[in-house]
Amino acid sequence: ADLRAHGDFRQALGHDEETRQLHEQAFGLTDPQTWRVMNNIAIDYGLNSKYQRARELHERVFLLQSEASTGVSDTDVLGSWNGLAWALRLSGNYTQARYLGEEALEYGREKLGPEHYLTMRSAMGLSIALRYIPTSYKEASDIAEQTYTACKRLRGEAHPDTLAAAVNLSNIQ
């Protein structure tokens, strides 16, 4: 995560691939800890413009986590769901990203609450997908405005999520 935050996406991918091998050796392919590393690799793929690989791995992790009976939290599932919707948007599949985003947002509201940071990230992601669908532009704007207002109230103006919500809102405007 630190490497990604510093913009060193290629090194982050290499590090996460090494970490995945270690996790597979220590825990196996069916352990939720291994799935979390796989989720990180999917993020790395997207940041390295390997959108199809990102989508495929996000989808795999999401399905594994969704079907798990233990060891996976609601935040794990929503994080993977958001990752899959993000990868679909990166691939230009805005309609599918919209439907996934709507489902993810509903899940987040139900399981984590409307003010949880991942729920609000789901709302941001949904509004991004919606803004690329001409008939959904107003809905995108409304969600972006609500999310920005909530982030500002809950986290303050300088929080990274608030700044991301502000950028999203300005992109729509």
Quick structural summary:
The chain has 173 residues and is an all-alpha fold. It has helices at residues 2-5, 9-27, 32-47, 51-67, 74-90, 94-111, 117-131, 137-155, 160-172. The chain starts with a helix and ends with a helix.
Helices and strands in order, then pairings?
Layout: H1 2-5, H2 9-27, H3 32-47, H4 51-67, H5 74-90, H6 94-111, H7 117-131, H8 137-155, H9 160-172
Helix pairs in contact: 2-3, 3-4, 3-5, 4-5, 5-6, 5-7, 6-7, 7-8, 7-9, 8-9
**Beta-strand fraction estimate:** under 5%
Q: Helical region count?
A: 9
Measure the end-to-end span: 31 Å
How helical, in percent, are the residues? over 70%
Uncertain stretches of 5 or more adjacent residues: none
Mean pLDDT: 96
Helix/strand structural class: mainly alpha
Total strand segments = 0
The best one-word shape is globular
Please characterize this protein's 3D structure.
The protein is mainly α and 173 residues long. Helix content is 80%, strand content 0%. The protein contains nine helices and no strands. The longest helix has 19 residues, at 9-27. The radius of gyration is 16 Å and the shape is globular. The chain starts with a helix and ends with a helix.
